[in-house]
Write a structure and sequence with these properties.
alpha/beta, 8-stranded parallel β-barrel, binds iron/sulfur cluster, binds S-adenosylmethionine
Length: 499
């Protein structure tokens, strides 16, 4: 693990390339039109129930909503109408993603950072944090636990912004992760999809991420509200440059990375504004490159070590407001994946899942190096970014989902078969992606049950598998022969067969 200081000034100065911002902008304004968002919010108080039901019908036909429509949903106060919105949110998820949940784990590789975001435990001024960058051997040990003991197939790797975790380190670490193979009870464990949460990169660096084979490139704007953004991200830092961050998905697309993960950190500015900010971002991506966000994340601000900014409780978005934000996002961008992380407590996650969540993490550790060293959760505060709310194991989460009739999918076939970007968007919108996903969900769930499940979880999972196989035989009889061939081979110990 690296621990010596590195000079960062000249590195920082070279980072931002104005030509890679300007050419996407229309004139000198970026696409977050605060006037339009504020006007939509002000013009849609007390919406007519007939209008709200029309909006719900539009969402159910998997069409992206306008700012006015989303603003109207934000302002509904009749409990019966709210219940209709929430039921529609769940229905949209079933139409697009069926009864599947995808799981992943975060893997923090380096917590050095040149930025100074006031809410983040990793900010450069925070002397209470123990700074670490994992070596390749240490990464192998982390991954061995994740794919050899817990059974994850997807990771989101997380880096601070710093020369020690620059693009060379990113590429090498991702390559190292893909190379790990660990024998399991019946087969072999490995990571099949590495998503990346990192600082915005230039096109040249993004091309290198594309070449090494990443899944989603995830960057959260944190807040879409310009003045709030400026207040929380000092102007003398790279992150202080709002448009450099805002246009990173445009650059990703040019570099060949077309699965975009956008997000806002809820609790920095008004939640209604952020919800419409996220929708504006989806509109812009649809307009500019023809592909909306693959996922939307909505982390809520959590306490972090030695970070007094967060102790100001006025900042936390109340549960009821958060619930509404999730519902509106689900209805407003019906095709997108919705990620609810273990920042939230188990109870909150249970309560929000039916609103159309598609991806969750479990067995998560966010201290750098914390999977392999097996340290107690409360012993990680000085090397993690914030404090986790849901610390249940993947096995427990999967059991609970299975008992509710939900299948956990470890499918990573999409990007390996070229089903990314526009192709996946079209398949999702038309409900056709389900054809592949249902089959791959069963195949990967079979692998996981055989390799990692406790007896209790296996008992909860088997009826789910059987129900899914019956559904496939009814809905996709033409695929049954090939599917059952793969299924039997996987049950016999072969791994990574997908359609
Ligand atoms: N350094 C990169 C960046 O800022 O984009 C990537 C990683 S950062 C570690 C990942 C995300 O964690 C941030 O984008 C932010 O939304 C979130 N985050 C930061 N501080 C947080 C806190 N106190 N509570 C919850 N989420 C937080
Ligand atoms: Fe650094 Fe990201 Fe934390 Fe900001 S949010 S201090 S950029 S790690």
């Amino acid at each position: 693990m690296l621990s010596q200081p590195v000079r960062t000034e000249s590195w920082q100065q070279r980072k931002i390339r104005s030509d890679e911002i300007q050419r996407f902008m229309q004139g000198d304004r970026d696409f977050i039109d605060e006037g339009a968002i504020t006007k939509a919010l002000a013009a849609n108080y007390h919406p007519d129930p007939v209008y709200i039901r029309e909006i719900i019908a539009k969402s159910l036909s998997i069409e992206t909503l306008t700012l006015d429509e989303a603003a109207a949903l934000v302002h509904v106060d009749d409990p019966d109408l709210v219940a209709e919105m929430e039921a529609a949110a769940g229905e949209i998820k079933r139409r697009v993603y069926d009864n599947r949940i995808v799981t992943f784990a975060p893997l923090y590789l380096s917590n050095y950072c040149v930025n100074n975001c006031r809410y983040c435990g990793f900010r450069r001024e925070n002397k209470a944090i123990r700074r670490l960058t994992l070596s390749m051997d240490e990464i192998r040990r982390e991954v061995a636990v994740l794919c050899g003991q817990i059974g994850h197939k997807r990771l989101i790797v997380v880096y601070g912004e710093h020369p020690v975790s620059d693009i060379d380190y990113m590429v090498e670490s991702i390559r190292t992760i893909y190379d790990v193979q660990v024998p399991t009870k019946k087969g072999v464990g490995c990571i099949r999809r590495v998503n990346v949460n990192a600082a915005p990169l230039c096109i040249e660096d993004l091309k290198r991420l594309h070449e090494v084979g990443i899944g989603t490139f995830q960057v959260f704007q944190e807040t879409y509200h310009h003045a709030t953004y400026a207040r929380l991200h000092p102007a003398d830092t790279i992150k202080g440059h709002y448009p450099w961050r805002l246009y990173c998905m445009h650059r990703a697309f040019e570099a060949g990375v077309d699965d975009f993960g956008i997000g806002a950190l809820f609790g920095l500015a008004d939640w209604r504004f952020e919800t419409l900010g996220l929708l504006s971002h989806a509109h812009e991506l649809e307009r500019a490159v023809g592909i909306g966000p693959h996922t939307i994340s909505f982390p809520r601000l959590e306490p972090a070590e030695n970070t007094p900014f967060i102790q100001d409780t006025r900042l936390r978005v109340a549960d009821a407001d958060f619930r509404r934000a999730v519902t509106v996002l689900r209805l407003a961008v019906p095709y997108t994946g919705m990620i609810l992380t273990a920042r939230e407590s188990a109870d909150t996650r249970r309560a929000l899942m039916p609103l159309g969540i598609t991806q969750i993490d479990a067995s998560s550790r966010i201290g750098v190096g914390a999977y392999a060293d097996g340290s107690a959760l409360d012993d990680q505060d000085n090397r993690q970014q914030f404090v986790l709310g849901d610390t249940r194991s993947l096995d427990t989460v999967i059991r609970e989902l299975a008992e509710a009739g939900t299948i956990t999918s470890f499918c990573t076939a999409g990007y390996r078969c070229g089903r990314t970007g526009k192709r996946i968007m079209d398949l999702l919108r038309s409900g056709k992606e389900g054809r592949f996903c249902k089959l791959n969900a069963v195949l990967t769930f079979r692998e996981w049950l055989d390799d990692f499940a406790t007896e209790e979880t296996a008992a909860a999972g088997e009826p789910v598998i059987q129900r899914e196989i019956e559904a496939i035989s009814r809905q996709q009889p033409q695929s049954m022969d090939l599917f059952m061939d793969y299924y039997r081979r996987i049950a016999a110990g072969e791994r990574d067969l997908y359609l």
